[in-house]
Specification:
heterodimer, A: 204 residues, mainly alpha, 79% helix, 0% strand, B: 237 residues, alpha/beta, six-stranded mixed beta sheet, four-stranded antiparallel beta sheet, 10 helices, 10 strands, globular
Amino acid sequence: MRPGLAGDILNLTYEHLVLVFSAMAIAIAIGVPAGILLTRRARWRTPVLGVANILQTIPSLALFGFLIPLPLIGGIGPRTAIVALVVYALLPIVRNTLAGILGVDAAVRESAVAMGMTASQIFRQVELPLAARTILAGIRVATVATVGTATIAAAIGGGGLGVFIFRGVASVDTVQILAGAVPAALIALISDGGLGWIERKFAA
Amino acid sequence: MLRFANVCYRDVLQGLDFEVGEGRTLVLLGRSGSGKTTALKMVNALLMPTSGQVFVEGRATTEWNPIELRRRIGYVIQETGLFPHFTVTRNVAVVPSLNGWPPDRIERRVNELLERVGLAPKEYAQRYPRQLSGGQRQRVGVARALAADPPILLFDEPFGALDPVTRHEVRREFTALARDLGKTTLFVTHDVREAMELGDEIGLLANGRLVELLPANQFPNARSEEARAFLACLRDD
């Protein structure tokens, strides 16, 4: 083990986690309400999901590159990287929120109406709890993908474990590549397991 | 108590006129697509008439606040529409909770109702709907409809999904319960036997029109073509 490598791993892992957490917090804060809104606005569904789909198809390295020249959100550094990660995380969250709420059995919804629940009571007591599992599944998929994509943030000076990987690739240094790839894989596995556990709690 | 005055709904219902007296049970009998479920949904304002009026307790459904109206009407549907994420207790407690009853009163009421529909609270109160048989779910559905002691009950083919034996049992218990409670009831079915067993009156619907409206015990004497078609399946059984 090279001197200082352990410390670097800790620092870059921390940076990586900050990137993922910030991006996911923003993506959830935008994606879940957007998905809920789309359940109420049928005409917006196709265009909104279409745009999200197209954004998803942009290769991630290219998207990071596109963002750099933009004012406010662009530039070099973690802020730009977070914007790009949010763009990628949105689609699964919006799609699953929409699918979860629309998937609530029509007979269940009708009996909620017939029992005299108001629209907001139906939403909070029936639709949201029944959709929770599907919404959480979307968040889990998005989180795992973001942990991986966040390694590319290093290409635009965003930091994170990608720093090791890019450096290792450039200098043909397998140890450096592994120092980035292994912690990233562990973060992905742990978040997948943890979020999967929360999801199953809602299966009851 | 409950009155339809020349009610039309798009091309589904064409001028329905009938009345359900206080504490009486009227069964709307008809084939699939005859408009009976549509008629039922007019009562709790799930649908509004395109012309004519439905009067509940003397007031047109268009004049009622729909939320207030629905909390005075118990509603039981075929798949019962129980909330899959609520226990039996919470399912039965829905309307009392919405009405802001204190917890101890809700608990007493839930236990009383579960006993009443033949589900021992100790054994069933904490179960989820998927842990019950079809017949048990239907009983919970009835208990839920009765929870806030509404003056009016609506049933939309509640026993349709049950096997014949369970169906017979639940129906017999329900008949006894209904007689005890004396609620004003509108009951929808396509089963002529069920109609004659449960109804004080039978209204026979065909293509959105009421072709017969008569006391249940006189239904075998009905002469219309549609009534004869229904009576024929009684003989074939």
